[in-house]
Amino acid sequence: MVLASQLVGTVVALALAVLRGESMPSTADLGWSVVGGLSGGIGISALYQGLAVGRMGIVAPITGVIAALIPVAVGIVLEGLPAPLVLVGIAVAFVAVVLVSRVSDDREGRSGVGLALLAGVAIGSLGVAIAQLSDGHVFGPLTVLRATEALLVGAIIVVGRRPWRPERRLWPALAGVGLMDMCGNGAFILAVQAGSLAVAAVLSSLYPVTTVVLASIILRERVTRIHAAGIILAVVAIACIAVGSS
C-alpha cells in the first residue's frame, strides 16, 4: 500500500511541477528532499509496524505528539516564540492529538513504544526537512521526496521478502491515497513558506480529528467521550492559533 501510494504521488507531483513551470530544484533543495524522503519512509514503516505489533492506543498518540513536537521546537528555535495566544493553542493542540488518537485496544503483548518513538522522530524530521525548501519550489522537491520514499519502501519489501502486489480492486483506492497524501505534503510546504513552521506543524498534526469525524460519518463508528473532548479541544486550539496569528 505504501509503495503504491508513493509511486502515485511521485507521478502526480512531477506532473504538477511541470504544469507550474517550476525551475530545477537547487542542490540544497535536492538534499533536503532526499533527507525528507528517507525520514518519511522510515517513519511510515515504523508506524505501521508499531500498530501491527503493539497497542494502537499507545502507538498512535506517541507518534502524533512527537511528530508535532520536533518541528514545533525547531520552529521556535529558528523563528522565535510565537504570540502568547498561539502558544496556548499549541499546548491545547497537543492535548487534542493525544485524546483523538486514543484507541480502545485490549490486546496483550508488546506495546510498540520503541517503534512509536522512531516513527514520531522520523515523521517530525520529515516536517523539518520540508521546511528547509526554498520558497516557490513545491512539487519539484516533492517529486524527489516521493521517489526517495518509494525506493526505500521498495528496498524494505525486497530485503524482507514481503508480498507487494495489491489486488486489482484496490488500485483506485491506492491511487486516491497517494493523491491525497501528496496534496497534504504540498499544502504543508506552502503553509511553511507562507507562515510559521511551528504553527503549520501543530495544525497539520490535528489530522486525526478528520479521521475520527469521517469514520463517524462514513463508517458509522461511535465517537467516544474522549474523542469528542479531543475534537472540541482541536477547535479551540485552531481558534487560538488563528486569532493569535492575525
What does this structure look like?
Helix content is 79%, strand content 0%. It is mainly α and 246 residues long. The protein is globular and about 40 Å long. 48% of the residues are buried. The chain contains ten helices and no strands. The mean pLDDT is 85. The protein has one domain (2-87, 110-196).
Mind sketching the topology for me?
Layout: H1 2-20, H2 27-53, H3 56-79, H4 84-101, H5 113-131, H6 139-160, H7 171-194, H8 197-204, H9 207-218, H10 225-245
Helix pairs in contact: 1-6, 1-7, 2-3, 2-5, 2-6, 3-4, 3-5, 3-8, 4-8, 4-10, 7-8
Fraction of residues in helices? over 70%
Overall geometric form: globular
**Structure annotation, total helices:** 10
Integer tally of domains: 1
Provide the gyration radius in Å: 18 Å
Report the sheet-strand fraction.
under 5%
Number of strands: 0
The average pLDDT is 85
Q: Which descriptors would you attach to this protein?
A:
globular, 10 helices, 0% strand, 246 residues, mainly alpha
Provide a quick synopsis of the model.
The chain is mostly helical and 246 residues long.
